[in-house]
Structure formats: C-alpha cells, structure tokens
Amino acid sequence: MSWKTLEQKTIFSAAPYVEVSQSKIDIGGGRIIDDFYQVHLRPFSAVVPVLENGNLLLISQYKHGVGRVSLTFPAGFVDEGELPEAACRRELLEETGLQSDDWQHLGEFVDNGNQRGCVGNFYVARNCRKVAEPNSGDLEDMQFLEMSVAAVDQAYHDGQFALTHQITAWTLARLYGGVKESAA
User: Which of 124, 119, 78, 87 shows the shortest CA–CA distance to 105?
Assistant: First the structure.
C-alpha cells in the first residue's frame, strides 16, 4: 500500500541546492504521521569512462562531505530542464576533456528510501577519447588517474572510494555495464 500525502510545506529552502519539506502522511489503517520530513537535493549524473584502450579514467580529489581525498568518476548536477544523459556528457567533457559515442544508462536511483535525498542517474561511456582540455570550473583540485579494471577493483577494496554514489557507479558498471578486465 502507498502512503498518501495529505499536506506538505517547505520549511527550509536554499535553492537550487537543498529544500526540506514537512508533510502530513496517511500511512493507512487510520495512522497519520504529522511531521514527516524529507530532504530534496539536486539530481545528479555519474559516468564510468572507459578509454579506447580499455582502462578507466578516475579522478582523485578532496571531498568536504567526507573530509578526505576520494577516488571518483566524473559526475555533477543535472541543471533545470536538462536530461540526465546530457548532464553526464557535459560533466565528462568539462571535468576530463573526454567524449564518447557509446553510452549505456545503468539506472536511476533515489539515495534514501524515506527521506529522499537526491536522484542519481548512472552511466558507462565506452571508447572515450580526449577532445579538449579539462575545464570544470570546480573549486576542487583534481588529479586524473588512468587505471585498469583490476586496479579500480583493488582501490575499492582498499577503501579509496569514500562516496556511496561513486561505489554505486562502479558496482553497476561491473555488474551491468560490461566493464570487465581486458584479456590483454
């Protein structure tokens, strides 16, 4: 059975980054929750870029939310009115200077089942080629690392990934995106 929202109001907004809402929810059986809170963050897209040689391009950068350097894949916010794949193509080009004509959507997921958080779309881009210099405009210092599939797997096991969304991107790429260790 679905819950039914009876009332909803925004109690905090810092557009476009975050909004907190308070809802009155009918959860069935005569039970009402008067103060159910949700956090609405901007949607994002993330891509696992597979280079023409079968290696992957990762970014090592400080992430303030976890307070440490983490391995990441290119990712960023989906702008208002922008499709998730278009955002991902833009982020790949801006952050790395790479482009690809071979994209696979791995899924769209909400990161918190009740409080919501944000919606993420995940992709694999194969046969990525360099077409420009990176120009992300981000505040972070980025170090680019070309890594084999086995090296990324090892980095994952060694705790070099600190962000759930990045671990999700890698797991989806390995399970459903055809990212496999090359035979070479």
Answer: 124
Contact predicate 56/29, CB 8 Å: no
pLDDT digits (tens, 9 = 90+) for 56-99: 999 999 999 999 999 999 999 999 999 999 999 999 999 999 99
pTM comes to 0.91
d(CA 94, CA 4): 41
Tokens matching residue 173: 């790429």
Residue 180 predicted with pLDDT over 80: yes
d(CA 114, CA 120): 16
- Evaluate whether 102 touches 89 at the Cβ level (below 8 Å): no
Domains and CATH numbers, the chain: 4-41 (no CATH), 44-176 (3.90.79.10)
